[in-house]
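Please fill in the sequence for the structure shown.

STRUCTURE ENCODING:
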């Protein structure tokens, strides 16, 4: 059955990393994947920056018009409507990181409400100023839900400091995701991290007796959006 995922979260939450990793993993398994970059707010760190790699993996990418062209006001292409009737196995929406960015999703509400296999995941990174506590994340979820009319179905702990991330960061994220989950009634879908950090976290969590429902599914990821000289010289920003 065709699956749809909408990945949302505040600036720096890591939603784009998660969206990219989900797309690449599914494509590697032979699935037909469409990734919709619907971030019309943040001109940096968007899925479209990895266009060449996505296309090489056989992933269809739909991007805002004028993205990466120097024009500061991108717009959503009509092509996006095709994802509700094409033959993709998996469609992932990488949505702008605040309520303003999520407004763009509201116009597709009529299509989403008819879907059977549809998830909206909110990504938490409590190392970012605007999402460092449960109250900020709950407020953000409420605002995003209000403007997009899409109900969040689960939350993920992706607490990180990019290449400086430690196990301590993910452990601290457990406390925030626990409170958000308890106060919102939303389940913890998973915990996200690079393989080595995630492995160490899971070991520590088991030793501490952290319940599995506060961890969810482990999502090991590669960091595609970091700025490094090697990637820049090979394929640009």
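FILLED IN BY: designer on duty
SEQUENCE:
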């Amino acid at each position: 059955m065709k699956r749809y995922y909408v990945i949302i979260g505040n600036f720096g939450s890591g939603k784009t990393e998660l969206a990219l990793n989900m797309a690449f993993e599914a494509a590697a398994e032979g699935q037909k994947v469409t990734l919709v970059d619907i971030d019309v707010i943040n001109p940096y760190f968007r899925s479209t920056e990895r266009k060449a790699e996505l296309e090489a993996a056989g992933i269809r990418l739909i991007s805002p018009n004028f993205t990466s062209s120097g024009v500061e006001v991108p717009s959503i292409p009509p092509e996006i409507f095709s994802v509700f009737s094409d033959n993709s196995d998996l469609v992932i929406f990488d949505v702008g990181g605040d309520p303003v960015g999520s407004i763009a999703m509201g116009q597709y509400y009529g299509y989403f409400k008819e879907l059977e296999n549809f998830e909206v995941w909110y990504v938490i990174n409590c190392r970012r100023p605007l999402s460092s506590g449960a109250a900020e994340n709950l407020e953000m979820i409420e605002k995003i839900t209000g403007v997009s009319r899409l109900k969040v179905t689960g939350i993920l702990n992706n607490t990180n400091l990019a290449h400086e991330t430690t196990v301590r960061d993910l452990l601290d994220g457990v406390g925030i995701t626990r409170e958000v989950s308890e106060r919102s009634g939303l389940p913890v879908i998973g915990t996200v991290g690079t393989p080595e950090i995630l492995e160490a976290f899971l070991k520590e969590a088991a030793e501490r007796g952290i319940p599995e429902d506060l961890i969810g599914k482990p999502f090991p990821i590669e960091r595609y959006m970091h700025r490094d000289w090697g990637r820049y010289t090979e394929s640009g920003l």
